[in-house]
Design a protein that fits this description.
Layout (H helix, E strand, L loop, with lengths): L1 E3 L9 H4 L5 H9 L2 E3 H9 L3 H16 L2 E5 L1 E5 L27 H15 L3 E5 L8 H14 L4 E4 L2 H11 L3 H11 L1 E4 L9 H7 L6 H13 L3 E8 L5 H18 L2 E8 L6 H4 L9 H14 L6 E2 L3 H4 L1 H8 L5 E4 L19 H10 L3 E5 L5 E4 L1
Parallel strand pairs: 3-11, 3-12, 4-5, 5-6, 6-7, 7-8, 8-9, 9-10
Antiparallel strand pairs: 1-2, 12-13
Length: 381
């Protein structure tokens, strides 16, 4: 399997690669404008993390100089009712559970207006469970109300698997649901629900969720309708290195076709309080070494293809997100006020104020810049 795309040659310091086991592979990827699955497996297995980081950082600086972006946003987890019962999730509750909830439209608007007034948010990340009682009209009503109350707050919401659930509730197509929701104010889709785009992995960790091809099809449909999206990878469950590589290949192939992905966001699985952890399948998160390698490899293979690379401080912590800048990440993510999904694992604090992010970026010697949902820079610090 091979992916080719157009990119300009990147002038890397000869000393970075000279004598390294990755020299030939990286040079070929960056100069011959192509990568094969074996190249990805090799880079994802290498221990040359310092050299990979130097290359990733060089590419990032060529693109963005010393600027590192972030967005003021909230996560609005509108329901925890879910019928897919993913084994990696500590957030969901089945229908009728005493801890289940669905947030009312009034409460949704109150939260967004409060966050806009107090934190000047530019985005609401609108995500929740797969609730079989919520149809397209529910989301149309909510999105229209958000657009009326806070017209300059972008709605970045609903994963491909949520779109699939809504279409099944309505007995319609994902295209019809997406078209209606775009008209109601949906601006872009997050990449959630991808996990690892290999069905052998999904059958173990999320057997009731959409297939890999369905995720790709819904993203392609969204892009065709002019709805941009993020692409994500949740690694560190039961997947192999080769399966991670296959995931990257699939993202690259779709991006070459649609140009619809704004950013790639790899994040490591947090096992605490999940069924996977309780069953003993995964005891610990992957850790920083794999994160930094994933960031560097992603920057190399997506150069000229996906512009932005985000390291989620949400699952990796602030310190690792800072180090990820040195390895190729150009976006720190969002403030994530109100986050509930990762916080359900009890792993760490899951929200930051803008000043915390600004300080973290400055501490690394970089220039923080605030962005909008579409990555337009609106303020330098």
């Amino acid at each position: 399997m091979k992916v080719t795309y157009s990119l300009q040659n990147t002038q890397l310091s000869h000393n970075i690669l000279k004598g390294s086991e990755i020299e030939d592979t990286v040079t070929e990827i960056l100069s011959d404008n192509e990568f094969k699955i074996n190249d990805l497996v090799f880079l994802l297995k290498t221990h040359e993390i310092q050299r990979l980081g130097l290359i990733g950082n060089k590419i990032r600086e060529d693109l963005y100089g010393k600027k590192v972006s972030f967005i003021n946003n909230i996560i609005l987890n509108y329901t925890n009712v879910c019928v897919t019962y993913c084994k990696f999730c500590a957030f969901y509750r089945p229908p009728g559970h005493k801890e289940s909830y669905t947030v009312s439209k009034e409460e949704i608007l109150n939260r967004i207006v409060f966050a806009k007034t107090n934190y000047d948010i530019k985005q609401v990340l609108f995500q929740g469970g797969h609730n079989p009682k919520l149809n397209t009209e529910y989301f149309e009503d909510v999105f229209n109300s958000i657009r009326t109350k806070c017209p300059d707050v972008a709605i970045h919401g609903l994963s491909a698997s949520e779109i699939d659930m809504i279409s099944r509730v309505d007995k319609s197509s994902p295209r019809e649901v997406l078209s209606r929701l775009k008209h109601a104010g949906l601006e872009s889709l997050p990449g959630a629900g991808a996990e690892i785009l290999v069905d052998e992995v999904k059958e173990i960790i999320s057997p009731l969720k959409i297939s890999s091809q369905t995720w790709l099809d819904i993203m392609e449909t969204a892009h065709d309708l002019g709805i941009k999206s993020s692409a994500t990878m949740m690694y560190g469950t039961v997947e192999s290195i080769e399966q991670r590589a296959r995931h990257i290949i699939k993202i690259a192939e779709l991006q070459k076709k649609t140009k619809g992905f704004m950013a790639f966001i790899p994040w490591s699985f947090e096992p605490n309080n999940t069924e996977i952890n309780e069953s003993g399948i995964v005891q610990f998160p992957m850790g920083g070494f794999e994160l930094l390698k994933m960031i560097s490899v992603s920057r190399i293979v997506f150069k000229g293809l996906i512009d932005h690379l985000q390291s989620s401080w949400l699952t990796n912590g602030i310190g690792m997100a800072q180090l990820a800048i040195y390895h190729g990440s150009d976006d720190f993510g969002g403030t994530l006020i109100g986050e509930e999904v990762v916080s359900a694992t009890g792993a760490r604090s899951t929200e930051l104020l803008a000043q915390n992010i600004i300080n973290a970026i400055k501490a690394m010697g970089y220039i923080p810049v605030e962005r909008r949902n579409n990555y337009e820079v609106i303020k330098h610090f």
